[in-house]
Design brief:
The chain is built from 4 helices and no strands. Helices cover about 60% and strands about 0% of the residues.
């Protein structure tokens, strides 16, 4: 038997270990674990069905490829995900104009106008921008 030596970069391994230690808990890995698992499960199934059809041994080959791909996809998802979310948050939102369609019934503007008329008729002022109290103990 010969000993196989694997070369790896200790600095990269230390960076990954530091990132994992900085997470609030291992539960922070759960979304990446589930998302990468589900996506790779579906993609490997579709690709195997396209390549080999529903041939005998499909399930075993599918599971083998999924168990090969998932351990690669999970760390990539976990390590790159936060950076991608920050980049997406910085992207400018593009407003898409929606066509105005009037259907029979009350629209939001109808309700708003009626509310303003009733409020003014009763001598009250509308308080805009209030947020509900999250403390439900007083209810």
């Amino acid at each position: 038997m010969s000993a196989v030596s694997h070369s790896f970069h200790p600095n990269l391994l230390e960076q990954v270990a530091s990132y994992v230690r900085r997470s609030r808990s291992l539960a922070s890995m759960l979304p990446s674990l589930v998302l990468s698992g589900l996506i790779t499960l579906v993609i490997t199934a579709v690709m195997h069905a396209m390549w080999s059809g529903a041939a005998e041994g499909f399930f075993g080959a599918w599971m083998e490829s999924w168990l090969t791909v998932w351990p690669i996809a999970f760390p990539v998802t976990y390590l790159v995900g936060p950076t991608l979310f920050r980049l997406a948050a910085r992207a400018p939102a593009v407003a898409v104009p929606m066509p105005v369609r009037r259907h029979p019934g009350l629209a939001f503007d109808d309700i708003l106008n009626a509310s303003e008329r009733v409020t003014a008729r009763n001598g009250l002022t509308a308080l805009r921008g209030l947020k509900p109290n999250p403390d439900f103990s007083a209810v």
